[in-house]
Amino acid sequence: MVTSREGVLLIIGFLALFTHAWFRKNEPKSLLRLLAFWTAVVLPSSYALLLHVGSSFQAFTLASTSFTTTLLLSISLYRLSPLHPLSRYPGPWQCKLTKLWGAYIAWGGKPYVYYKRLHDQYGPVVRIGPNELSVVDADLIPNVLGASGMPKGPMWSGRRILPSKNWNRNNSLTSVRDLRRHAELRKPWNTAFKPSSIAEYEGMLIARAEQMIRCLKAFCTRDGPSAIDLALWINFFTFDFMGDLAFGGVYSLMRDGDTQQVLLKMKRGVFMPSISQHIPWILGTLHAISFVSADTRAFGMFGIEQAKKRAAMQDNLTRKDLFYHLLEDAKMPVLTKLVSSALLAIVAGSDTTSSALANICYYLIRYPDYLHRLREELDATFKPSEPNETIEINALASLPLLDAIINETLRLQPPIPTSLQRAPADGSGGKALSPDMYILEGTAVQISPWVIHRCPRYFYPDPDKFWPDRWISGDPSIILDKSAFIPFSTGPANCPGRPLAIIELRYVTCLLVRTFDMSFEPDYDVAQWEESLEDRFVMLKGELPVKLALREVGKKSD
Ligand code: HEM
What we know:
It is a single chain. The protein is of the alpha+beta class and 558 residues long. It is 53% helix and 8% strand. It has two domains: 5-80; 179-550, CATH 1.10.630.10. It contains 22 helices and eleven strands. The strands form four sheets. The protein has a four-stranded mixed β-sheet with strand order 1-2-7-4. Strands 3-11-8 form a three-stranded antiparallel β-sheet. The structure holds protoporphyrin IX containing FE. The site of protoporphyrin IX containing FE has 25 residues, from helix 8, helix 17 and helix 21. Heme binds at residue 495. Its cofactor is heme. Keywords: Heme, Iron, Membrane, Metal-binding, Monooxygenase, Oxidoreductase, Transmembrane, Transmembrane helix.
């Protein structure tokens, strides 16, 4: 029996220190569990204090504040101290102290700009969280992302769009941490994007791209061009194409407009996970608060609806689509598999290509010399006097300037600008990333494509400049290390959709450049576009007001 108030407070202090020591090994994974633990400590402590203070309110206030303050102080001092295993890595104190800072930066939508500033200031390895490093070092990529790398990091479990774990538990390709399970889930995605599978999708791509061109032509009136939001039309196109590819063509935004506000649902739906990915333990609580998670749930429901419609078609398929392959060897109920992959297909497959295409158009209009040179390259392969000539998709693979423009756009504006995060496997103890860099289990490592792509050690000179010729020059002092170019990531969890995405980018760029003269509205401030881009683990975009005029065949590009 403790006989004084000070004695009880001392014990509470010890309990807080013990809790911190325990948390270091067993970090709480949800706010609810944390609260349950807190209550289990604070209530008995209040009871013990009750014998020494005037009221139960006083006892509870004293117990809770002394426990919480000591715990937070202990955690903060440890994180900032030389005792922390990441203490030797530089970074701002706010990052070292709490991931809430990362969540705050993410709220603003420009974490890639922030990380670049940190790397410019602190060097290639920066501590961006109490237990997280950001690296800009091509030599470390294989041991982080590559074949000898690590499983997905904790941020992926903070990105769940659906409230219930049941759809996703151990079935989500993007968040599963067990490498063997990931490889199992990944197999059908690889089959779905091998050349023979892609050949089956080309008809859908051509039909949708031609539909977009027809729709855009309707804006080219005899009264002269009026500006349209080209980014929106590109979004419609990529969304419709993904709808055909994944869900059997159940919607057409280009034909009907966005009557269900799908794009708005997606834009709003990814906001919450883009914040909670920095503090995954809060996700369950956010999902439970309906007004906070309403938009994310609405987007999740849209994915479930599409999955259900596609499941109903399973026995009457007329063509092999993405889910034909994903379901072929599914060892789980069809609907579960569909739901767990539906949102992934929508977000990973449509928003990424739409960002890339919109950025390609932006750069071509901003730097018209490249637009004209690209036209010349295309005209040399496909006759300009025959605008309706069928474009042979395979012929697009041998056009150096087209690929250089695509690469340079993906370098400067990778559609997934940050968030390639990995962490040592559970139970592994840790991982050596290089002879002098060993990270312990519980530490995460992130590589930001946006930052590494703008690093002068790899792309020199003028790493921030749109200069597609750097990809053609062949001079090894210009692209110093191509392994630093990772718009599709690398290793076993890289982008399986890359081959299709590249075909899509080549084909649509080719059609747009062959068909239209494009210009910005005269009073459009070009800086607005880059300002409008937001990193919500995909890249959200603002308006791209572009005037389109039908290209006059025979008129020389000026
Ligand atoms: C320009 C277009 C695209 C870009 C730049 C892109 C980029 C990426 C990146 C950077 C990743 C993350 C990999 C990692 O964590 O290391 C990824 C993952 C993924 N992408 Fe893409 N992507 C594009 C288009 C597509 C398309 C068209 C699909 C097809 C539906 C697709 C499906 C996926 C899937 C399923 C994953 C998860 C892979 C895994 O976790 O194993 N992507 N993509």
